[in-house]
Structure prediction request, 241 residues.
Amino acid sequence: MSTIPAWLESFSPAWRDAIAAELQPSGARRVACFDADGTLWSEDIGEAFLRWMLAGRLIATSDHGADVWEEYEHRVARDRSAAYAWAVALMAGGDEAQIAQWSAQLAAAWPNYRAPMKALARGLHEAGFEIWIVSASNRWTVRAAAPIMGFDPARVLAIHTEVDGGRITNRIVEPVTCEGGKVSAIAKWIGVRPIFAVGDSLGDLQMLEDADVPLVVGRHDMPRAALLGVARQRDWPVHLF
Prediction:
């Protein structure tokens, strides 16, 4: 394209060029998949929600001691997909409507949204793309944050459980949307490989590899982040916040 849209101007030249090259109209479904934590917003909204629930003694299956958070961190170090699923399953027994309400309250107060990413999502949507969030946080909280960033909550793929009688269970719905599970979830629930995939961590690597155009998010204060190293090796477009 000869003209760069205004909603791309705040991004790195590599991102601008890679995105602009794919904006031509097409009769086929065009999908863009965004990671959430560290990508659409800084920090991890799922972990923030878990810590808030622990602090408020709101998790029925937990004794709310410091050891719960320590156990979570140990699990993340061993197997992040399993750890994230375990954290969501901790909410078993909770009332789904209450969890959704609490999630909405956190999303409304969350200070970490990235305005350029909201503009990017809106721009791609107006260009004819289906925009999806594919996150390893819990679905209730990500769905609450989605509209604030311009996404349809129905187009959120995130970790969740079966719900029985309005209560969250400990039965995780597969695939877990982390690492290779992101690719499996896209295939299962979207059914089209993404043109764009946007992510910031190794938990997004397989999703980025599966997209036509991988777009990597990083931070100026974390130049040695693992995914940035992969992006440099593979010459993937990078934008730093």
The mean pLDDT is 95.
